[in-house]
Amino acid sequence: MESRFRVLFLIVAAVSLSGCAATKNLFGFGPEEAPPPSAEPPGQVVDPEVARREIKEPAIDREDFEIGGYVGIMSIEDFGSDVSYGLRIAYHITEGFFVEATVGQSEGGLTSFEVLSGGARLITDDERTLTYYNLNVGYNILPGEVFMGEGRAYNTNLYLIAGLGSTTFAGDDRFTVNVGAGYRFLLTDSVALHIDFRDHLFDIDLLGEEKTAHNLEGHLGFTVFF
Amino acid sequence: MSEPSITTIPSTPRPTSSAWLACLAIVVSLLILAAPALAEDEYRSVTVADPYLEMRTGPGGGYPIFNVVDRGESVDVIKQRTDWYLVRADNGKEGWVDRAQMQLTLQPDGTPVSFKEAGIEDFTNAKWETGLLAGDFGGANIVSLYGSYSLNPNVSVELWGSQILGNFSNGWMGSVNVVHEAFPDWRVSPFFTLGAGFIHTSPKTTIIQGEDRTDQVGHVGGGFRVYATRRFLLRAEYKSYVVFTSRDENEEVEEWKVGFAFFF
């Protein structure tokens, strides 16, 4: 009986002591903690000499633009295939989306009709030069990484593009829609190789009835980010 | 033998081809020379304040994390591409860090660094804007590119270049617009526009042999700028043009266009 009271007394004492320890500062009991040492003279609460801190936006080199050129082959419907080349500039808006402008040129050959009919020419030689510009939106649909051996990794992107523009061919400017896909292979963080396939669609009525011509272009490009 | 063979493709001189290639070569070589010069710029150093900074192998959320920099260590910021920052850690490793993590770093003196993301406030306050619109110009296709400078959140000045591609004639148009937005802070912001410029039209060669014309145009219109996300906005507009022709009657043309733009 006596030992049971002793245990009860000990429990009560332990609980009340721990409670006091937790609440002593709350109610102002117990020894006060020493104030932090201060070099300031008594009475001065705030040091007015503190420099105002400004949040700075650092001037970091932005590399959202991509510029370069390309060379490839363009197949002009009914007019054969020839070398095409052009320039492109792109602006990367987010990690997925970019906008792109391209200008390019190729050369149309003779149509089958012109070859078989003898000397008849549908258009002059000057009019066979095909020049186009396009304003496109692109999306990096499959970003990725490729490995060369065990020690080298390169970033890549498979992207889709679609856009509008104009093609000058056979004596007229033609409203052109172009769609395509490309593969960007980054040799370094700033230099990239491209492989692109594009279809330029425009209406042409040179061979009788009006039709939508598909003009396929494949090219190899080189771009630099800046 | 004086007559050439009919199947021979005439070899035409291509002065334009060589000019193009020369231009390309100059641009590319200049850029190659310029690239290392840019890279040698002084790097900005920031200190990691978050428990850790994750470095990815590429500028995108899907690239794997290959290196982690602990709190208190510093990294050099080499460059930025869209919302990603290329940083170099003390151990020499280079990787890409997203804006959200860079926002939690500190300058060497302990003050926070600001890596702001474009938002709807910039939609209202950004000075420059450029976009691409396409649509219908009196039955013809029209492709337009514009650049805009904001004098204040309500008023901006725009420069437009358009190509008109129709069934019977083609043309170019350039104009200067003044745009007024009554509620520039609205997500869907209506605007009113007035402008003037020039239009050049040339009839299609296969239809008719006509003369090229250049006329003055004036226009009035309205539309909406709609904030999409980040720096993107969508734009739709209607304009009513009066073409001041040299003939007895002026021509009136209605134009509808939709497209996208981004501000910076």
Describe the overall structure:
The complex is a heterodimer of chains A (226) and B (264). Chain A is mainly beta and 226 residues long. Chain A folds into two domains: 1-31; 65-225, Porin. Chain A has two helices and eight strands. Chain A has an eight-stranded antiparallel beta barrel. Chain A is elongated and about 125 Å long. Chain A starts with a helix and ends with a strand. Residues 19-32 of chain A have low confidence and may be disordered. Chain B is mainly beta and 264 residues long. Chain B folds into two domains: 44-106, SH3 type barrels, CATH 2.30.30.40; 122-263, Porin. Chain B has helices at residues 15-39, 99-102, 120-125; strands at residues 44-48, 52-56, 65-70, 74-81, 84-89, 94-98, 105-106, 128-137, 140-150, 155-165, 169-181, 188-203, 213-227, 232-244, 251-263. In chain B, strands 8-9-10-11-12-13-14-15 form an eight-stranded antiparallel beta barrel. A five-stranded antiparallel beta sheet of chain B has the order 6-5-4-1-7. Chain B is elongated. Chain B starts with 14 loop residues before the first helix and ends with a strand. The relative contact order of chain B is 0.11. Classes of the chains: A mainly beta (226), B mainly beta (264). Chains A and B meet through strand 1, strand 2, strand 3, strand 4 and strand 5 of A and helix 1, strand 4, strand 5 and strand 9 of B.
Based on the model shown, name its key terms.
heterodimer; A: about 230 residues; mainly beta; Porin; eight-stranded antiparallel beta barrel; 2 helices; 8 strands; about 10% helix; B: about 260 residues; SH3 type barrels; five-stranded antiparallel beta sheet; 3 helices; disordered N terminus
List the topology elements.
The complex is a heterodimer of chains A (226) and B (264).
Chain A (H helix, E strand, L loop, with lengths): L1 H22 L41 E11 L5 E12 L4 E11 L4 H5 L12 E20 L3 E18 L2 E15 L4 E14 L6 E15 L1
Antiparallel strand pairs in A: 1-2, 1-8, 2-3, 3-4, 4-5, 5-6, 6-7, 7-8
Chain B lengths: L14 H25 L4 E5 L3 E5 L8 E6 L3 E8 L2 E6 L4 E5 H4 L2 E2 L13 H6 L2 E10 L2 E11 L4 E11 L3 E13 L6 E16 L9 E15 L4 E13 L6 E13 L1
Antiparallel strand pairs in B: 1-4, 1-7, 2-3, 4-5, 5-6, 8-9, 8-15, 9-10, 10-11, 11-12, 12-13, 13-14, 14-15
